[in-house]
Fold:
Amino acid sequence: MVDKRIDPEKTALSVGDVAKRSGIKVSTVHYYDAEGLITSWRNHGNQRRFSRDVLRRVALIKIAQRVGISLEEIRQALSVLPHHRTPSKSDWQALSNQWRISLDDQIGRLMKLRNQMDECIGCGCLSLGQCPLRNPGDIQAHD
Ligand code: FES
Structure:
């Protein structure tokens, strides 16, 4: 009978492997590890090792960062995924739905800012009483 268990040491990736296969710097791998976004262990030679699922986690982190998701939001989202399990299609759907809400909020704030800038183009007054960029919450109106 064949033993189907996989020895994690035999399939583990080094820091350099993760960096190379993910297209990121070694220092970024260490950073993600230190921030708890990915996990590692030390082998018998005291070298850091990563399970192969880390490649999909890093891919997820890179995509999320590219679309402007904060590291804290990424950390929270990844914290619900079991370690040493590759994020599944349903994991990705849940994460992308959650991040879509955050992106919609960011887009809304940026559109508002752009519209406020339209009012300022060619003006330059930067008046607390008049300028929506200088006084975005219209704080002066409530004084
Ligand atoms: S600079 Fe004048 S309204 Fe903003």
Notes: Residues 119-120, 123-127, 130-131, 133 surround FE2/S2 (inorganic) cluster (CB under 6 Å). The chain is about 55% helix and 5% strand. The chain has one domain: 8-142. Residues 8-142 form a domain with the Multidrug-efflux Transporter Regulator; Chain: A; Domain 2 fold (CATH 1.10.1660.10).
